[in-house]
């Protein structure tokens, strides 16, 4: 199959895994029954809470009514005690009756206060306002009869008892009975209303609960279908990835082969016909070869970037100090040419990571730090910090690569990580502009993030985290996907 045919297959496979705009994803279709069930559940919960508080309020009303009746009976009982002991004293002149009267008379005022505090209904408060003066008059009548008797006017005392005393007590009993009856009516009306409301709410709660059960059943069915659909999407995605991998192989073979042919033919022309070409022809053939080689490098970089996102990381123990020494040795000629040096202020930690790719992270950052540095004493500092405060959060276990070079304007701090993005205007042979893209991808594959602090003429510091397992031992560990355990703090 041609490269064009493979491209069409890869695009078609990618489109199969894209949800249709009209139907939405299965997970989105699951939202409405769950939202409805949650809404009904909230309503049912609210009704239940209301029923609880309503029952409590009804209980408080019952207690209040019983308290009013109790306090009212207390007022009557103290008045009866005071009246009985007063009459016993008038008939017998025994001071023991007088002592009982005084105790009962003193208890009347607290009994009235208790009754007043127990009443909350406005009509009952009005009734209390009518009965309270009668009670006070009765107390006055009792005291006046005793005074008349003690002053030798026993006949007048008895007459007062038979007239005003008898009538006052009758009025008080009648009003007390009315108040008690009204309190019972209020309690009955409140209980009836509460029962009606509670019955309606209970019915609504049961209906809502039934709806919740129905919605839960619907959700289970929908979730099962969602799971089946997602499994189908996963299968399609696997097929799509397989076809994309096939496409990558096609690119590496079908596209690179013509490029090599162009480069070779340009070289053959130069070799066989250089003496027959003028300087401009030789220059153009040389340029053709250079452009073909650059195109091949770009294709290789694209293929490498696509492979960075697939497969497990080759996890092993890595001594980063040894890694930096190997990079120094590999870059020796560039360091001499640029009069640059690499400094590591303190020992770097050992970590468990994909050593090859982490080496590439440091190599790319160090190479850029040296390449884009016009300082006559170029310096690249590599270090490790226990924590670094960023605008988003405090990052733990942070590596950094710092230089004293030309710096990067803040407006390009995110742009530089894009594929083939170059902001320094170097020549075509200076690189393809994917180094920092690789760095960001590798750091993210290790569960970390990368950012920088820089400005024009101020040098640049790249910070990054790796979230690798700590491993202070020297043995090589198994190959696996890197975990998310934090690095140990150094120093």
Topology of helices and strands:
Elements: H1 3-16, H2 26-29, H3 31-92, H4 95-118, H5 122-150, H6 154-273, H7 279-308, E1 315-319, H8 320-330, H9 332-337, E2 340-343, E3 350-354, H10 355-371, E4 378-389, E5 394-403, H11 435-445, E6 450-454, E7 460-464, E8 469-470
Parallel strand pairs: 2-4
Antiparallel strand pairs: 1-3, 3-8, 4-5, 5-7, 6-7
Summarize the structure.
This protein is an alpha+beta fold and 491 residues long. It has eleven helices and eight strands. The longest helix has 120 residues, at 154-273.
Note down, in words, how this protein is organized.
With 491 residues, the protein is α+β, with helices and mostly antiparallel strands. The chain folds into 2 domains: 1-310, Four Helix Bundle (Hemerythrin (Met), subunit A) (Up-down Bundle); 311-470, Heat Shock Protein 90. The chain is built from 11 helices and 8 strands. The strands form 2 sheets. The protein has a 5-stranded mixed sheet with strand order 2-4-5-7-6. β6 and β7 form a beta hairpin. The two termini are 59 Å apart. The relative contact order is 0.07.
